User: What shape does this take?
Amino acid sequence: MKKASFLIFSILTFLSMLTALFFVFIYAPTEKTMGVVQKIFYFHVPSGWIAFLAFFIVFLSGVIYLMKKDKYWDIVGSSSAEVGVIFCSLVLITGPIWAKKVWGIFWTWDAKLTSAVVLWLIYISYILLRKYVIDESKRANISAVVGILGFIDVPLVYMSTRWWRTQHPQPVIGGGENSGLEPKMLLTFFICLIAFTLLFFFILYLKLSIENARKEIDYLYKSVEGKET
Amino acid sequence: MINYIKKVFALLSKDLRIEFRTKDSFNSMFVFALLMIIVFNYAFDLTRKETLEIASGILWIAFTFSGILGLNRSFSYEKENSAIEGIILSPVDRSAIYLGKFLSNFLIMLLFEVVLLPFFVIFFNLKILSDLPILFLVMLLGTWGFVSVGTIFSAISVQTKMREIMLPLLLFPIAVPIIIGAVESTSYIIQEENWQLIWLWIQRLIGINVIYFTISFILFEYVIVE
Amino acid sequence: MSYLFIAYSIIWIVLFFYISGLFIRQKRLFSEIENLKQLIKEKDI
Assistant: This one.
């Protein structure tokens, strides 16, 4: 991406985030039962979807890397994992804040929350794994395998926790707001979703350009050494 | 095909022979699990009814935490002696290595569980003699699933700097569905619930096992590369 | 109301610091690339 188009992309992302803020605080009506706190939902849920998108990209990059052995996909996967962890952490932080205000409890081990924690753990271990692998040449392969297994795990955890929970009923968090959103709220939600998606790809692009810069520096160092000998 | 089976068997018997000679894994797993069960008895002051409710959980915590000890060792022998290069260079299909390792881990862990079970029954005063076959089936399935992902993660973590912490860190989130399935099935057996419920959970366990085993089997070759 | 404020502040602060961090790193790497390119040009002369 050339400098000009990157600049436009940055501005677009920034503007969309501001627009989202405006919609959340000024346009969207206040919810009856939960009050103003419900507005956390507009940033909380899109963060969750984006975290999931990020980890899906990790999965996909893993599969493509194992097939094609192109290092580019390893870099896409690892960058996406790091960004995904950031958004997943935001979900895990904003969720309990909302829950405490509305339901009086910080946490419950229902399907969604458990899956979120497990997701977070899997990708933290993915990142640590990449850091601690001894042999660099093996890192890409191993990360791809963990990324694939990790992503498959998530629906399994969600389902098995759901089955477990129907046997042992627990307080339900966040079940309500999906049932029938008022059109104004729906619009606000989608605007936030778009803003967050732009933000995600913006950050991902930044990370990829950093990795490319690193590669170029390595290459340039080698050229300098070549000229010295 | 016969050749393949022979190779798997060769790898399997090698690992089992090492284990029977040293009894490293088995002893550490057994003692650790026993200690866990004893500590749990001190940690919780339970009524009879409460004990029955959480017995299954305690059992599977003991199984899985001790299982990690056994899994940690499964590739560390080869890594220490660089025997892993020997295996890679030999004309063996990577998936055969996976099967050989999986089976040896599986059999050792299953043996450990079978030996631990009587102690568990005694300490918790359980009445499960009539349900023994079904309980064995659940133990088999739970161990199968746990070891199938455990083997591949053991191969991965042995190539890292912090292998003792990487294995549990990688394995436990992935093993959550298996553990839920195993704990639920065992819990219903212990509390003598109706058959349909138990059977339902067993079916779920089988489904999860199929997914995990197949994928681990396919992906293993990418983990062990020269 | 304060809960809402806290939640949104956390989101914005985290994102702000993270993205700034990335920008700073990028700038540093780009300037290093420029230095190296200069170095190579000098060696050629």
In short: Residues 40-170+183-228 of chain A form one domain. The CA atoms of residues 16 and 214 of chain A lie 30 Å apart. The first helix of chain A runs from residue 3 to 27. The interface with chain B takes residues 66, 114, 118, 121-122, 124-125, 128-129, 132-135, 138, 141-142, 144-146, 148-150, 152-153, 156-157, 159-161, 163-164, 167 of chain A (CB under 8 Å).
